Amino acid sequence: MSGIDYSGLMPLETALAHLLALAESAPIVEAERVALADADGRVLAEPLIAGLDLPPWANSAMDGYVLCLADWSGEPLVVSQRILAGTAPEALQSGTCARIFTGAPLPAGADTVEMQEHVEVGEDGRVRFSEPLRLGQNVRPQGQETRVGDSVLPAGTRLGPIEMGLAASLGAAELLVRRRPRVAVLSTGDELIEPGQSLGPGQIYNSNRSLLIAWLRRLGCAVVDGGILADDLELTRTALAALSDVDLILSTGGVSVGEADFLGEALREEGELTFWKLAIKPGKPLTCGHFRGVPVIGLPGNPASSLVTFGLLARPYLLRRLGVQRVEPLGFQVPAGFAWSKPGKRREYLRARLEGGRVVPYPNQSSGVLRSAAWAEGLAELLEGQTLEEGDSLRFIPLSEILG
Ligand code: AMP
Ligand code: MG
């Protein structure tokens, strides 16, 4: 025996590279202006250019007293004005200092602030500085963060609370963002019914629809709920044909090897079908292609498989269509709190937690067990052919990296 045979299974990287290339060939370029408050989760369509310096003028970083250091003789100084944040000071009278508060503009002619804790105010009202002063101390110079004309955020930036705060600091009331991708979610399976109905024999509740719709909305997509699709070729064709105006049809189920694959058949007949057996677990079967030109990604039906393939493949695909460059989740190396003696042909994404700084997998890693992912804080990556002793390190991808 000479090692492990990976033939016939596609490495995750290869599948991702294919999907990202497809995404780049079908970018969603239309843009719309949205109010800053509505920009969370959206993608910038143009760089954010600073229209002003930040800070716009030199200001005090402390509550204290401001003076012109070169003019100071070392004697106690008279306080000639009081400068509050939000006011416009007079120029500093020579031979004096001014009371100043955090965020207040420096008066013309002043350059140095001493914090009030290091100052004594005598009975005569004059200010004595008890510590040596350094030119420019406790001053936030004009433009120290940003200069007019700087590109502060590039096009393709995904906006979140921090970027929205930054845009606000530059006075942006609206932002130009890519339009929301329209994504249809189809859950295939004769066995599926929706919560609210009572279970008949052989039926299960549809998990993937709720999982994917909520997730897509977090990603800034406009979701078209395609509901449950029975395992039937004619119904599959009809359902796909009705979705001619979406940017992506995302289906789950019906792609297992050996099963009558109606999605695949419909794509083969009226579009294009690629079927991949991925070298990952969970999540081996994945369909991708198009139906009459509308891109389709068919995720495996088991909920944990849908989660992993959506998070590691479909999510990066969607973000790249919006022009986002960094679409892959960050992971970091963490010591294993378990041993793994069986090398696998497929890379495993264990639903796992960090306990005492070590990765601990959920005991039941079956791809049908969504509870594993609800318990988990991340995906622990076991590489193809890898074995582990306790304490060896492996990559841990926090779920928070892929869920938003
Ligand atoms: P399939 O890929 O259709 O063979 O489905 C694989 C497994 O996932 C089967 O056990 C299905 O019952 C289950 N499954 C498929 N779709 C869903 C869904 N939307 N919600 C929960 N389980 C599903
Ligand atoms: Mg099925």
CATH architecture of the largest domain: 3-Layer(aba) Sandwich
Helical content class:
10-25%
User: What would you report as the Rg, rounded to the nearest angstrom?
Assistant: 30 Å
Kindly give the count of domains.
4
Q: Which outline best applies?
A: elongated
For the record, what CATH class of the largest domain applies? Alpha Beta
Give the spatial strand order of the biggest sheet.
Answer: 16-13-17-21-20-18
Strand content: 25-35%
What would CATH call the homologous superfamily of the largest domain?
Answer: MoaB/Mog-like domain
Per the CATH scheme, the topology name of the largest domain is Molybdenum Cofactor Biosythetic Enzyme, Chain A
Number of helical elements = 8
The secondary structure category is alpha/beta
Could you report the average pLDDT, rounded to the nearest whole number? 96
Oligomer: single chain
* Tally of strands: 26
EC number: 2.10.1.1
Pathway: Cofactor biosynthesis; molybdopterin biosynthesis
Keywords: Magnesium, Metal-binding, Molybdenum, Molybdenum cofactor biosynthesis, Transferase
InterPro entries: MoaB/Mog-like_dom_sf, MoaB/Mog_dom, MoeA-like, MoeA_C_domain_IV, MoeA_C_domain_IV_sf, MoeA_linker/N, MoeA_linker/N_sf
Explain this structure:
The protein is an alpha/beta fold and 404 residues long. 20% of the residues lie in helices and 29% in strands. The model is unreliable at 1-5 (pLDDT under 50). It has eight helices and 26 strands. β20 (285-291) and β21 (294-299) form a beta hairpin. The strands form eight sheets. Strands 16-13-17-21-20-18 form a six-stranded mixed sheet, with helices on both faces. Strands 19, 22, 23, 24, 25 and 26 form a six-stranded mixed sheet that branches. A four-stranded mixed sheet has the order 5-6-4-7, with no helix packed on it. The two termini are 44 Å apart. The protein folds into four domains: 12-30 and 179-321, Molybdenum Cofactor Biosythetic Enzyme, Chain A, CATH 3.40.980.10; 33-53 and 145-178, Molybdopterin biosynthesis moea protein, domain 2; 59-140, Molybdopterin biosynthesis moeA protein, domain 3, CATH 2.170.190.11; 332-403, Beta-clip (Beta Barrel), CATH 2.40.340. The radius of gyration is 30 Å and the shape is elongated. α1 (12-25) packs across α6. Bound molecules: adenosine monophosphate (AMP) and magnesium ion. Residues 187, 189, 191-192, 204, 206-208, 252-256, 259, 300-303, 368 line the site of adenosine monophosphate. It catalyses: adenylyl-molybdopterin + molybdate = Mo-molybdopterin + AMP + H(+). Residues 184-320 form the MoaB/Mog domain. Its EC number is 2.10.1.1. Pathway: Cofactor biosynthesis; molybdopterin biosynthesis. Keywords: Magnesium, Metal-binding, Molybdenum, Molybdenum cofactor biosynthesis, Transferase.
